[in-house]
Amino acid sequence: MTDINGRVAFITGAASGIGYSLAKTLAARGAKVMLADKSAENLLQAEDDLRNTGADVASVVCDVTSLDSMKAAAQATLGSFGKVHIVVNNAGVPMGGKPGRIPMEDWRWVLDINVIGVAHGVEVFTPILQAQGEGGHFLNTASMAGLMGQAGVAPYVASKFAVVGYSESLRDEMLADNIGVSVLCPGYVKTGIHSAMFDRPSLKATIDEPAKNKGYKGMDKLIKNGMDPDAIANWAVECIEKNQFYIFTHPEIRDDYAARSAAILSDFDALIDDGRFSS
Ligand SMILES: NC(=O)c1ccc[n+]([C@@H]2O[C@H](COP(=O)([O-])OP(=O)(O)OC[C@H]3O[C@@H](n4cnc5c(N)ncnc54)[C@H](O)[C@@H]3O)[C@@H](O)[C@H]2O)c1
Which residue has a Cα nearest atom 25 of ligand 1? Predict the structure, then answer.
């Protein structure tokens, strides 16, 4: 998508963090933006803040885990702006725990938001983009956790691997309709994401404010020292303009990824050396 000016962008998880920064950046490039988030209060604040910068902005409360909610948000976007071209499936939550001690309701919670939420965005908006016939772009927010395993946050990693694999699969399928696809894979970014750790079903009813304020096993420190979300958003929007598929943000992660790739190739080589399945 080379020209963002005058296009319409729909962004989930847009009331804060990376989603809000993406909205700001897209608006600064001349896009009209529909902010979607499950938090009505934060959403109104975000809409006000963005409008005060001169942006053409609207907002809609949307829970990405609900197909009906996503459909209503799409209709609200068309109602406000008439069209939609850029769909940012960004809403997400963190989730960790030790294997054998993770309640299945928490597993379902993280997969519902981080994976099914993205699928809802793609399923609802693809026919709209196709019918418009003006091309478009999907930006799906994954994570560095979608590229390699990480102990302690296995459910989050599983959800983000799904987003990367899903996005890779969509890339070729969207070509015929001139719809680009990108997957954003950041390392730690300075946002409020760590607080959502306490929204998981098994904790939500019992956790108290002092416990929340202590943070979650140091994750909050990593996030607080993370990259500036505005810098991530600027780079991501430049990558949309170049139709770049993988959007990485932390150069130092390349070495870890290279080590993972080398380990995979080494195990393939062991199979080839063994020779038992060779034709
Ligand atoms: N912050 C990081 O270090 C980091 C790193 C890699 C990837 N990410 C990913 O970036 C994305 C944005 O996270 P962030 O860091 O900006 O966090 P954030 O908590 O600031 O923003 C996430 C937003 O998503 C919204 N949200 C949560 N559940 C929702 C639902 N069911 N429906 C609609 N909206 C919902 C929240 O209300 C919030 O406004 C997530 O997908 C996250 O996994 C974050």
Answer: 13
Query: Measured from the CB, is residue 181 less than 6 Å from ligand 1?
Result: no
Give the CATH number, domain containing residue 61.
3.40.50.720
Indicate the number of domains in the chain.
1
Q: How far is CA 174 from CA 41, 142, 165, 177, 237, in A?
A: 35, 19, 15, 6, 19
Q: Is 263 part of any domain? A: no
From the number of C-beta atoms within 10 Å of its C-beta (0-12, 13-18, 19+), residue 133 rates as exposed
What range does the domain containing 103 cover? 8-252
Identify whether 275 is part of a domain: no
Residue 1 lies in a domain: no
Is the Cβ–Cβ distance between 65 and 93 less than 8 Å? Answer: no
Q: Is residue 207 part of a domain?
A: yes
On whether the pTM is more than 0.85, the answer is yes
Of 144, 167, 143, 166, nearest in space to 256 by CA: 144
Task: Write the pLDDT tens digit of every residue in 127-150.
Answer: 999 999 999 999 999 999 999 999
Q: Atom 22 (ligand 1): residue with closest C-alpha?
A: 13
pLDDT tens by residue, 172-225: 999 999 999 999 999 999 999 988 988 999 987 777 766 666 666 667 788 888
- Does 156 participate in catalysis according to the annotation? yes
User: Is 190 in contact with 227 (CB distance < 8 Å)?
Assistant: yes
Cβ–Cβ < 8 Å for 141, 113: no
